[in-house]
Write a structure and sequence with these properties.
- The complex is a heterodimer of chains A (about 290) and B (about 325).
- With about 290 residues, chain A is mainly alpha-helical.
- Chain A has one domain: ABC transporter involved in vitamin B12 uptake, BtuC.
- The radius of gyration of chain A is 19 Å and the shape is globular.
- The termini of chain A are far apart.
- Chain B has one domain.
- Chain B has 15 helices and two strands.
- In chain B, helix 1 runs antiparallel to helix 8.
- Chain B is globular and about 60 Å long.
- The chains are: A mainly alpha (about 290), B mainly alpha (about 325).
- Chains A and B meet through helix 5, helix 10 and helix 12 of A and helix 5, helix 12 and helix 14 of B.
Chain lengths: ~290, ~325
């Protein structure tokens, strides 16, 4: 029983982080119709910057208790990378998908060396920060409170994003732009601004997820290219462009990975791709996506 | 047409003279170029001519390398020709079911499916340690070429001498073969499917069957290229099939220009030389490669061949 609960919590924690990145991916795909391979690089950027930010903040007397809000701030600060990158992507909006994929692939390559240049080739981690909030112990298992905080943050983000997109005027404009760009533009929507804002929001979701992961895992050079395929699995399973899909997809991938690691370690990653291929073949639009014509 | 022949002959001649004038290092550097060029000829049949962007094509290069390790290392087949034939067959056999499932989709969905299949293969190679050697890979022993053992040559001498010319010959043969394929009625059908699949179907073209054929042919070329890469390194490792390697294949093709028959070959050459020069200059070579890719994508979508094309009618256009 305790083993089961441990796996479950581990899986949901992983799903929470995946959801944040996948939500950013979905937002950008939904509005701009671009699959952003660099979302994994945003995630890694958040992780690296999170380590540095907390190290400096601690020097200036940040209480270790504030590490969680500190990391959130670090992640959100990185939203500044959004607008310039969006400006660069603007040149391929109307073009073939292969060019869009390649341009974001170019970003992945460039970010890889930016990390190497700024933070070096060795993994960076935050020491002794993970268990600052303690663990909740029941009779036979313990859960670090930090994990619960991250899960809570992901749920809050999901709710906020949902409300933002469905209940506010901004959300209506974003959805209208996603639906029909030309019509939205004709009705006076500043589409360029919407694109810039949406991309920045997507980037910030990725960087925040990355920053939140550093107390539990080190920031390393490979995390960008490893994470992007998992986030990609999430959006394919859930359905491209669907927020609900991102939520369900990340739970499926997160839990499946957690259970596979324990039960059949050989199938840890394999199982995910089997599901991805099955979904693509049987329901190419994903579980929650709109069917494509 | 005539210009293309002159261009190709000049290129082949320059490559044939290279080992005589350049240091052995550059001759061995050309071996991966030959491997990639052959693989990209196949890749571009799929991408440039059929309009399907595969983001998992490195899978077939890995089939070539792991196939060599299996045939030569495990089963002890010493003849490179037999191994080459074997991996081409394995590649086609693997491509048949994968292609059958993938070609029903186009655009981004085709790319994602091939990416997923590639990563599936990667995680198999990576995790099933007792079968594939996991991350340490499988050793590929030295093989005989044309039935000659060539034991008197050291590895470098072999790569810079006999094996260099062997690969050059292979590249010329495969390029002629591909030229025949794309200029046959079959190639015309592929372009028709690319430009308007529905209209082609109304005209009686079997769209799925054609795409599948292109997929299987491109896999065969990929496996042959992978076998050459494996021969040089002497090792098949899972990095060969990682998605970034597939991305690198697309990079080379776009760098050279996918709308030109010779574009992928030019791209493979440019990429190999560029990567080598950058790696000796700086440890941040990925950044410059990425920046190059961004510049090509934004400013020169037709690639190097497209820039050369500014000289009127210099080379053979795909559009024909």
């Amino acid at each position: 029983m305790s083993a089961f609960a441990n796996i479950l919590i581990g899986g949901v924690f992983h799903a929470a982080v995946l959801f944040l990145v996948a939500a950013g991916l979905q937002l950008v795909f939904g509005v701009q119709k671009i699959i952003n391979l660099a979302c994994g690089s945003f995630y890694a950027l958040g992780a690296y910057f999170g380590v540095t930010f907390i190290a400096y903040a601690t020097q200036f007397g940040l209480s270790p208790w504030l590490i969680f809000p500190g990391l959130v701030v670090a992640g959100l600060l990185l939203a500044v990378v959004g607008p310039p990158i969006e400006r660069m992507l603007r040149s391929v909006y109307g073009r073939d998908e292969s060019f869009q994929l390649l341009l974001t692939f170019a970003l992945v390559l460039m970010f890889q060396d930016v990390f190497r240049f700024v933070w070096g080739a060795n993994p960076r981690s935050l020491d002794n920060a993970y268990l600052i909030y303690g663990t909740i112990n029941t009779r036979d298992f313990g859960v670090p409170v930090y994990n619960l905080l991250v899960i809570a943050a992901a749920i809050t983000t999901a709710a906020t994003l949902g409300a933002l997109l469905t209940r506010t005027n901004f959300g209506r404009i974003v959805r209208a732009t996603a639906e029909n760009r030309a019509m939205a533009e004709a009705l006076g929507v500043d589409v360029r601004r919407i694109y810039s804002v949406v991309f920045t929001l997507g980037a910030a979701l990725g960087t925040t997820a990355g920053a939140l992961i550093v107390p539990t895992a080190a920031a390393s050079l490979n995390m960008a290219i490893e994470f992007v395929v998992e986030a990609f699995a999430v959006v394919v399973i859930g359905g491209l462009g669907s927020m609900r899909g991102a939520l369900v997809g990340s739970l499926i991938v997160g839990l499946m990975r957690a259970f596979a690691i324990v039960l059949y370690p050989e199938f840890e990653v394999l199982a995910i791709y089997v599901v991805v291929i099955a979904v693509l073949l049987l329901r190419p639009a994903g579980l929650f996506g709109k069917p494509v014509a | 047409m005539k210009r293309a022949a002159v261009f190709a002959a000049a290129g082949a001649l320059a490559l044939a003279l290279l080992p005589m004038v350049a240091p052995a290092y550059y001759a061995t550097l050309m071996i991966p170029f030959f491997g990639y060029a052959i693989a990209l000829l196949g890749f571009n049949l799929l991408f440039g001519y059929t309009g399907l962007l595969s983001f998992g094509h490195a899978m077939f290069l890995a089939v070539g390398a792991y196939g060599s390790a299996l045939l030569a290392g495990v089963f002890g087949c010493k003849s490179f020709e037999l191994v080459l034939l074997g991996v081409v067959c394995i590649g086609m056999a693997a491509a048949l079911p994968i292609g059958f499932l993938c070609v029903r989709h186009t655009g981004i969905f085709f790319g994602m499916l091939t990416l997923a299949f590639g990563m599936l293969f990667y995680s198999f190679l990576f995790k099933f340690y007792h079968l594939t050697g996991g991350d340490s890979g499988m050793r590929i022993p030295r093989m005989d070429i044309l039935g000659l053992e060539l034991a008197q040559y050291s590895k470098i001498e072999l790569l810079a001498g006999p094996f260099y010319y062997y690969c050059l010959a292979l590249l010329i043969i495969t390029a002629l073969l591909m030229w025949r394929i794309v200029h046959s009625p079959f190639g015309l059908h592929l372009r028709a499917v690319r430009d308007n699949a529905r209209k082609a179907e109304y005209l009686g073209v079997h769209v799925h069957r054609l795409r599948l054929a292109a997929f299987v042919i491109s896999a065969a070329f990929g496996a042959a290229g992978g076998a050459i890469l494996g021969f040089r390194i002497g090792l098949a490792d899972p990095e060969l099939v990682y998605w970034t390697h597939s991305g690198q294949l697309v990079f080379m093709t776009v760098l050279g220009g996918f709308s030109n028959f010779f574009g992928p070959i030019v791209g493979a050459l440019a990429f190999t030389l560029l990567q080598d020069q950058l790696q000796s200059l700086t440890q941040y070579w990925r950044f410059i490669l990425g920046a190059t890719l961004a510049v090509v994508v934004i400013g020169f979508p037709a690639g190097i061949a497209g820039v050369l094309d500014l000289w009127p009618r210099f080379s053979a256009r795909v559009k024909a």
